[in-house]
Amino acid sequence: MKRLLVTLGILIVVIGPCKGQEKAKMNDGIFPMGEKGPSQFFTGNAYPYGLVQVDSVYTTLAGNVYFESGARSNWHTHPSGQILIVIDGVGYHQIEGQAKETIRKGDVVKCPPNIRHWHGASKNEGMSHIYIIPNTEKGIVEWMEPVSDEQYNH
Ligand code: MN
Predict the structure, then answer these.
(1) Which of 55, 58, 78, 131 has the fewest CB atoms within 10 Å distance of its CB?
(2) Ligand 1 centroid – CA 78 distance (Å)
């Protein structure tokens, strides 16, 4: 009995904190959630998390963003374009002047250079996407105004 209790105790110590951490910090079960993105660039709760930084070898930037339902980026452009890879959930992506597109886990989206667009979660479900920004020597992002509720719901 004593041995069983000791074994159980060890199991709880080993399993307990890991599960807790997972719930607190993970959203899609792959990457940590990161800090909440600033409200000057995002509407609602979005959590960018950098994965690849620019250095002396690589001029490509990559990371993950988890958007809670209803959250989205402001309108913005990327001087060298951007690639999005949806890894979880359901979201929206819109290039200005085109219809809003629904994007789902597994979808790959290219945002051409200097084209105004936004991306975020769908109304009722969160979304995680990886972003890849190549050729950052041309610039990374130019932030613009928020996506209004009318634009988001259109
Ligand atoms: Mn973008």
Answers:
(1) 55
(2) 6
Least confident window among 19-28, 74-83, 91-100, 101-110: 19-28
Measured in angstroms, how far is the CA atom of residue 6 from the centroid of ligand 1? 52
Ligand 1 centroid to Cα of residue 99, in Å, is 16
Residue whose entry in the numeric block shows the structure tokens 């969160």: 126
| 116 contacts: CB under 8 Å, gap ≥ 6 | 75, 76, 77, 95, 96, 144
Q: How confident is the model at residue 73 (pLDDT cuts 50, 70, 90)?
A: very high
Q: What is the CATH number of the domain that holds 48?
A: 2.60.120.10
24 CA to centre of ligand 1 in angstroms? 27
Residue 137 tokens, joined = 């020597």
Banded pLDDT at 107 (limits 50, 70, 90): very high
Task: Provide the domain count of the chain.
Answer: 1
**What is the CA(20)–ligand 1 centre distance, in A?**
32
Q: Are 46 and 128 in contact (CB under 8 A)?
A: no
Question: Average per-residue pLDDT in the chain?
Answer: 88
| pLDDT given for residue 9 in this prediction | 46
Position 88 pLDDT exceeds 60:
yes
Domain that holds residue 75: 2-153
C-alpha of residue 70 to centroid of ligand 1, in Å: 17
User: How far apart are the CA of 21 and the centre of ligand 1, in A?
Assistant: 30
